[in-house]
Amino acid sequence: MDISGKLVELLPEQxxxxxxxxxxxxxxxIIETISDQYPKRICIDAWADKVDFxxxxxxxxxxxxxxxxxxxxxxxxxxxxVKAWKIERKGGDSQPSSYNSSLPKLEDMPPPPEITxxxxx
Length: 121
Hints:
Order of helices and strands: EEEHEE
Mean pLDDT: 82
Low-confidence stretches: 94-102
Oligomer: single chain
Largest sheet: 5 strands, antiparallel
């Protein structure tokens, strides 16, 4: 699913350690839809490397978020999470320059090897 809107609030970062010993990071943020007749505010969770991206965006930035919805039951009550898997700044880069500065640019990479079709069918 996808949604677009304006970043209106960043909630405090949360972190912890899982049962397997791995550490995790999460930061929730609020966007407000701007294309609807009646704007809605939605709380979305950013995990791991998405935390670095979202915390570098200024409030008021227009973003497009691809997300998954997941609900779970606990003690007879249902809880729904909105987990971002892709966050893009509208009208600009999908990531700030400091975020991907260590990655090589596509034009600097060597061309892929030529693929030959050796299949007998």
